[in-house]
Amino acid sequence: MAIELTLPDGSIREFPDGTTGFDVAESIGSRLAKAAVAIELDGAQLDVHRPIPMSGAVRIITQNTEEGRSVLRHSAAHVMAQAVLDLYPGAKFAIGPPITDGFYYDFSVDRPFTPEDLERIEQRMAEIIAEDQTFERDEVSVEEGLELFADQPFKREIIEGVDAEEGADANSVSLYRNASFVDLCRGPHVSSTGKLKAVKLMRAAGAYWRGDEKNPQLQRIYGTAWETQKELAAHLERLEEAERRDHRKLGRELDLYSFPNELGSGLAVWHPKGGMLRKEIEDYSRRVHGQYGFEFVNSPHVAKAQLWETSGHLGFYADNMFPAMELDHADQYIVKPMNCPFHVLVYKSRSRSYRELPLRLSELGAVYRYERSGVVHGLLRVRGMTQDDSHTFCRRDQVAEELNRHLQFVLMLLRDFGFDEFEADLSTRPEEKWVGELDLWELATDSLREALVAAEIDFQVAEGEGAFYGPKIDIHIRDAIGRRWQMSTIQVDFSLPERFELEFATSSNDRERPVMIHSAKFGTVERFVGVLVEHYAGAFPGWLAPVQASVIPVADRHDEYAEQVAGELRAAGVRVDVDLAIETVGEKIRRAITDKHPVILVVGDNDVENRTAGIRLRGEDSERRGVPLDDIVAELVELCERPR
RNA sequence: GCCGGGGUAGCUCAGGGGUAGAGCAACGCACUCGUAAUGCGUAGGUCACGGGUUCAAUUCCCGUCUCCGGCUCCA
User: Which DSSP category does A488 fall into?
Assistant: First the structure.
């Protein structure tokens, strides 16, 4: 018997029965065979070292692809579990999947793993890898599986749930064995442990069984695995780069903001330089909101509990709200976690006509949310934050255009800050709990989808992931080092207009309910700054840099001229510092560089005489001397020009 | 909130049952300097906070706050 395999180039070739993926790869090229870690046959991944069971379309998965690395990492996870079970008899092992950049495995053990434990485990793994144990696939019945894992409760639970979960053949489960270690696994795996060339354990952490905090907490070990030591080293270097960009560290170094203990968790104070950065960002926000037809409103930080009762927040958002304050007449006031009810009240302040819709209300609103203590993180997850929030009230026939307009607006804004890679999630109506009318849901969802298509950005549909009150788009950006951050959101709301009984007069003088669109463009100013700091590694473009230029006098007899230079630049709108410190020029240059000022101007005798300066731009390691002051002013004005 | 690890000078960190140390930063003096650290000196700490053990606690124990890495959650 023979099998017919269709290769990715479309060619069909015949192979003898018993041919393995490895053989197929070998027939194409020895380098391909060496890099092969699995194959895909008609969409299903299979081991490269086992016979291909039937004819079909085949593709070799190599270790230098994300799919291939997943196979390596999955195998590495097995080896780690093997090492843990060797070293810690009685340990129960749960699940160990590959993840982005690595893998983990969860264990139930007597005591949590220490850093020393990780070293031991890593050492044991190295031994297992050196032994080059073969991974063998096996299939057993559910009964046999349950028996085999008699003392492994998590594995038994997985076996018992296997048919329900994966739609797999309910009568058998697949196993992988290497040496004496057996794990329940779908595979595929590399042919032997020796294929793992670069594995490193990263850290231990607690994690709940099946991700549910009601379940027992397990001990998770994270590791990473790559096809070569070189790739591993590159990965570690990327982690270090991320550390160098950490906005908490840069925020301190650049004197932007801090998180004083006296304040409380998740609360920041903004120093003058951070304040300037914020101001630029907020000024920009107001400018473009105005240009896009938003009107500015303002609302207080607290409101009666009744308002939150009406809005429904006390029902579904109470966990994230700071507790109520008891006031004199038994009134309770609550610090706002959102701005929407206030904007609704603005809408409701008088009767509205169809002619004035869409009504776009915008506010940089400070909100406070009670985040659980373990989740706060620098500026990226705080308890006090400022949303560049807007609420648009529109008619049904305006929904499509408004949503499109909001998306265009958000993308323009993000592009102005140097982000140009976007991914969006379109979250649709939940299956069970939802409010509003079905046709409105469909209209809004379709409009969101069309807007995404028109904007030509990649998006995924998250079926049923929308809030109960409406569909939404979340926009993620990729930063300079490829990390994904959620920023903006455009959210349709059928609930609040209902709860507050909003209406407007139609052209036929009927009463109709408006549709509401929530949108935060930056997400929050705090998070946006945090992401921006990491994106630019603190080296902000001219218009955002808190200090745009520093002027350095060579000796103190040049101080006066330095101030004069600074004065002219300030008059032209450039933010300038003059470094009058009694230091060497080298020291002052160094300080300006480490402070990441976009421009350094050095002035000495020649400059005083000729009305010039030496100019050095950030990122360049040489300077231009004797540049006429007028040229410098013109150059800096251009360099610091705001996008809109 | 849960699991683990931390909190020593402004920052980075060393130390350790007998009331603490370095580098950088700060301050002073000298140097007056042309593109990434001039030299010398001075000052600076209730060792996060509260309790306990002890003749003695910054060190050991407990609690609280807070930070870090995860889980869960999320802008």
Answer: E
ipTM of the complex: 0.93
Give the tokens for residue A26: 């070998």
In a domain, A143, yes or no: yes
Could you tell me how many helices (H) and strands (E) chain A has, helices first?
20, 34
- 3-class DSSP string for A285-309: HHHHHHHCCCEECCCCCEEEHHHHH
Q: Using the CA of A319, give the nucleotide whose C1' is nearest.
A: B73
Query: Which residues of A in 25-84 have their CB below 7 Å from strand B's atoms?
Result: none
Chain B bases near protein CB atoms (7 A cut-off):
1-5, 7, 11-12, 26, 29-38, 65-75
Q: Would A75 be classed as within a structural domain?
A: yes
Instruction: Using the structure, give the distance in angstroms from the CA atom of A78 to the C1' atom of B58, rounded to a whole number.
Output: 45
Give yes or no: residues A400 and A263 share one domain. yes
Name the β-bridge partners of A602.
Answer: A552, A614
Q: Do A420 and A524 have their domain in common?
A: yes
Give the count of domains, chain A. Answer: 4
Tens digits of residue pLDDT in A293-302: 999 999 999 9
One domain, residues A217 and A234:
yes
Q: For residues A166 and A191, state if they share a domain.
A: yes
Task: Express each pLDDT in A302-322 by its tens digit.
Answer: 999 999 999 999 988 998 999
- Where do we find the tokens 């330095």? A562
Strand B closer than 7 Å to the CB of A10?
no
A247 touches strand B (CB under 7 A): no
Whole-number Å distance between alpha carbons of A555 and A577: 16
Give the neighbor-by-neighbor strand order of the sheet with A384-394: A295-296, A359-368, A384-394, A515-520, A484-493, A472-478, A422-427, A458-462
